[in-house]
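for the recovery benchmark. C-alpha cells below, seq after
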C-alpha cells in the first residue's frame, strides 16, 4: 500500500507581504510529477508578521483587549449547535439579559498555536464592513482551553444551507439580480480585507452568510482550520486555488478563485468539478485540468456578463486572475445591480420561511426543458454533503414549470 502523503502545512500569513507576492512555478518535466513531489512538503504560506510570544504573555494581552466583564459563559445560553469540526464548534446563543441572538465560535487552543490564534482574533476585531460579520467580542473559557468569539447571527443561513434547501424543496432558481447581489457582497468584502492587507483564507459556501434582509456577510476569515492549525481538509481542498495547493506564494487572488468556485456551485446547485475518489485526484484535477465554466443548462440560460466575470475569477494563472477591486467594477455587475430586487423576499423563499415554495422557478435535476410545461410525475435527487460526508436522497412530486410573464426571471 502506498504511504499516505501528509497534507499538513504551516500557518498562512495574516497579511499579504507584498502586492506582488505571487511567484510563478518553476518549469517541471511533468505536472503530475511536480505536484506529487511537493505534496509531502505542502505549504499554505509562511507567517512572516506574527511572531510567537509565550502563551502566558499572549493570554495577558488578550485579556486586556477583551475583558471578561463584557462576555462570560454564564451570560450566554446555548440555543442550537450549528457546526462542529476538529478543534472548533459553533453555537447559536442568546444573551440572558437582553435576549439578543449571537453566533459563538469556540476554538480549542493547541499549545504551539495559542499566541498566533489570540493575535488573529485581536486583529479581526478591528475589521468593520457591511459585507463582513460584525464582531462583538471574545473571551477565554474558565473551564477549558477554549477561546470563544462572539459575532452577529445571520438568520438567512449560509450559501451552503440555502443551496441545499433549494435542491431539497425545488425552490426559486437564483436569477441575475439575486446572483449579482450575492457576487457583489462577496467581492466587496474581499476587497475590504485586501485594502487592510488581510486574506480570508477559507472562502467556501459555508463561510458566506445571508441575513434575513438579504445582506451578504463573510465569516470565519483567519479562523478556519487551515489558518488556525495549518491543516487543509478535503473540503478546503475543493475550494483552494491551484497556487495554494502547489504550495506557491499567493495573495488575495487565491480568495478570488475560492469565491469563483463557490459562486459557480451556488448558481448551478452542484460542485463544478466531477466527482473523484481521493484528495490527490482532487488536487491534480484543480491544478492540472481546465478551470470550470458557467454553462447554460436546459431551460436555464445565464447572462454572458456573468459568465465573463466568473471566467476572470477562475483563471488558473494567479498572475492573470482578476482582483476583487476589478471584479466589483465589472460592467455586468454594475448594470445588474441597478435593477431592483427584494432580497428579503428572496431569502424568505429560498429558506421557505413562512411562504409556500414558488415552483414556477425550480432547480430541475435534470433541468426542465424550455419547451416543456410539465415535469415528470416524480424524480429523485441525490445531494452529496461536502462537509462531513454522506449523501441524502430527496424525491419531488409532480409540479409545473412556467416562465414568468415577459420571460424575465423575477429575481
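predicted aa per position
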Amino acid at each position: 500500500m502506498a504511504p499516505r502523503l501528509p497534507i499538513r502545512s504551516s500557518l498562512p500569513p495574516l497579511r499579504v507581504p507584498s502586492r506582488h507576492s505571487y511567484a510563478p512555478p518553476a518549469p517541471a518535466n511533468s505536472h503530475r510529477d511536480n505536484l506529487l513531489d511537493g505534496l509531502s512538503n505542502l505549504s499554505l504560506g509562511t507567517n512572516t508578521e506574527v511572531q510567537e510570544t509565550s502563551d502566558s504573555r499572549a493570554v495577558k494581552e488578550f485579556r486586556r483587549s477583551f475583558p471578561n466583564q463584557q462576555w462570560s459563559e454564564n451570560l450566554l445560553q446555548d440555543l442550537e449547535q450549528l457546526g462542529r469540526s476538529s478543534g472548533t464548534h459553533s453555537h447559536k446563543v442568546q444573551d440572558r439579559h437582553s435576549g439578543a441572538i449571537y453566533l459563538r465560535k469556540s476554538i480549542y487552543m493547541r499549545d504551539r498555536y495559542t499566541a498566533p490564534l489570540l493575535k488573529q482574533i485581536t486583529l479581526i476585531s478591528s475589521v468593520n464592513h457591511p459585507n463582513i460579520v460584525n464582531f462583538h467580542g471574545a473571551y477565554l473559557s474558565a473551564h477549558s482551553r477554549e477561546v470563544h468569539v462572539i459575532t452577529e447571527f445571520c438568520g438567512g443561513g449560509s450559501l451552503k444551507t440555502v443551496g441545499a434547501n433549494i435542491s431539497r424543496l425545488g425552490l426559486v432558481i437564483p436569477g441575475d439580480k439575486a446572483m449579482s447581489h450575492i457576487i457583489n457582497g462577496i467581492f466587496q468584502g474581499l476587497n475590504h480585507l485586501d485594502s487592510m492587507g488581510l486574506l480570508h483564507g477559507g472562502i467556501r459556501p459555508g463561510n458566506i452568510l445571508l441575513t434575513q434582509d438579504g445582506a451578504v456577510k463573510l465569516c470565519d476569515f483567519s479562523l478556519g482550520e487551515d489558518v488556525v492549525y495549518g491543516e487543509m481538509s478535503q473540503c478546503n481542498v475543493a475550494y483552494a486555488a491551484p497556487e495554494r495547493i502547489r504550495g506557491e506564494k499567493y495573495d488575495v487572488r487565491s480568495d478570488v478563485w475560492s469565491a469563483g468556485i463557490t459562486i459557480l456551485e451556488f448558481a448551478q446547485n452542484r460542485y463544478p468539478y466531477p466527482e473523484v475518489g481521493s484528495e490527490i485526484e482532487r488536487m491534480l484535477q484543480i491544478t492540472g485540468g481546465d478551470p470550470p465554466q458557467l454553462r447554460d443548462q436546459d431551460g436555464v440560460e445565464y447572462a454572458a456578463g456573468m459568465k465573463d466575470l466568473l471566467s476572470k475569477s477562475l483563471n488558473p494563472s494567479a498572475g492573470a486572475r482578476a482582483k476583487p477591486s476589478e471584479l466589483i467594477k465589472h460592467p455586468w455587475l454594475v448594470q445588474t445591480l441597478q435593477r431592483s430586487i427584494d432580497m428579503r423576499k428572496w431569502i424568505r423563499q429560498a429558506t421557505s420561511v413562512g411562504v409556500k415554495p414558488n415552483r414556477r422557478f425550480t432547480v430541475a435535476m435534470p433541468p426542465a426543458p424550455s419547451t416543456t410545461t410539465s415535469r415528470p410525475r416524480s424524480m429523485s435527487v441525490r445531494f452529496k454533503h461536502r462537509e462531513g460526508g454522506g449523501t441524502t436522497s430527496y424525491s419531488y412530486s409532480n409540479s409545473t414549470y412556467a416562465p414568468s410573464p415577459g420571460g424575465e426571471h423575477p429575481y
